[in-house]
Amino acid sequence: MDEAALIRAAQAGDQSAFERLVRTYDHAVLRLGMNLLRSPEDARDVYQEAFLRVYRNLDHFRFDCSFQTWLYRIVTNLCLDQLRKRKIRREESSLRQTADGLRDRMDSVAEERADGDPERRIYSRQLKSRIDQVLSELTPRERLVFEMRHYQGLRLRAIGEVLGTTEEAAKNCLFRATQKMRRALGDFL
Amino acid sequence: MTCEMARTELPLFLYGELNFDEEEAIERHLETCAGCRDELNALKAVHRLADQAEMDPPAGLLESCRAGLAGQLAGQPPARRAGLWARFWSWRPAAVAWKPAGALALLALGFLAARLSGPAPYSGARVRYIEPDPDGRVQIGLEETRQRVLTGRLEEAPIRKLLLAAAANREDAGLRVDSIDILKSQSASAEVRGALLAALRGDPDPGVRLKALEGLKAFVWEAETRKALAQALLTDDSPSVRTMAVDVLVEGKQQDVVGVLQQLLRRENNDYIRERSTRALREMRASVETF
Question: What digits encode the pLDDT tens for the residues B167-178?
């Protein structure tokens, strides 16, 4: 069954079609949430809220854009809300209290993944910390555009559609984000 | 083109997001400017570093999200029947329905138009002569690259040939992503499948490799496809490509995947891929160790 048929079946109430639709995109949605929010809990919240909204509003999907664009619009709006709230509240949701004091939850994820080479591990940690820093300095829109272009491979035209802006504006965001990354990562080049 | 202008456009050049004329201008500049070539290499290095910093969801998170969503949906009222608009779309006469082939041809048109047109009417044109006239006006002779727009269905040989050529364009990753994205719906053709396999095996851009992989999903029963998937799984730098490769291989349920998954477990650091491989080996009653 192609995607349009799947959507129509889900619109008509076919639960298994809805589930197949979810499974087509949910890994990418979770990765996007995880990379943007850098917290498994927040990524999970975005995942659940996004697909619940899709479920509730699928009737209103009129095929005037691709399903992926429609879904990503929902996901990016949820992520933008989170990022803006954090900016206002300076919420440090990725920090947790441990015996050694406050630690970033993502550190443990990265450490579990790092291989046994101590030098490589130190390098990975420094690199991660620098990238975290520069990402936190990007505006929410710059982050979204960078994530969607670099990690998800979406074209700027599609990103513009998702964000409700022009391709040119998305291009400018990507340019600014890349320049900031270039400056911040200069020592690692 | 000045170095300042070139450096403004290099990040977009690297992502394949410039139009034809802009790319031509950058390439001409790069041929003669070692400083800008160095800057381009530095930007490529930034891309590689950013690739290394990509975060994957921790093992088990996707499954737990799916389970959580299923629980939440169980408490929702059943999805309503299609609304008026949805019914309107599904009942439109076949002649005007948005058929996949038509949509793809439109996509082809869109991408060709996007690649072959510039943002300004005279960008990329070369001034050949200037002649002031007695009325105070000026006549300017321009040399322009003539552009053509072709429209057609994917099944038509010239359109397919152009798409295959665009898929092999080493200079423009964006063009390759667009071409492979369109071609992947035609993977029943051996020629297209060959292009998808070549892209999966050798394209430097992970976005292109991902699109090629999507197109090959339905052919996991073919030994050649499985071989390319196994190679991607064991050697691809991108966790996204490896993740999709493991999903496709595991879902293919072919016995020769066992050795690949066992080999993978000795070198893979990604939690999701490890967990998926381990589970698949157990389901196939194979050892998660090699002896």
Answer: 988 777 778 888
Are A131 and B177 inside 8 Å of each other by CB? Answer: no
A99 domain-assigned: no
Structural domain containing residue B14: 3-47
Chain B residues with CB under 8 Å of A47 CB are 65, 69
- The pLDDT tens digits of the residues spanning A79-114 come to 988 887 776 554 444 444 444 444 443 444 444 444
Whether B277 and B268 have beta carbons less than 8 Å apart is answered as yes
Strands B126-132, A95-98: pairing kind: unpaired
Work out the pLDDT band at A53, boundaries 50, 70, 90.
Answer: very high
Instruction: Measure CB to CB from residue B12 to each of A58, A150, A175 and give the nearest one.
Output: A175
Two tokens, residue B75: 């408490």
The full 3-state SS of A96-139, as one line of letters, equals EEECCEEEEHHHHHHHHHCCCCHHHHHHHHHHHHHHHHHHHHCC
Quick one: pLDDT at residue B143? 62
For residue A151, give the DSSP letter.
I
Check: complex ipTM more than 0.85: no
- B84 lies in a domain? no
Q: How far apart are CA A46 and CA A52, in angstroms?
A: 10
A33 and A88 housed in the same domain = yes
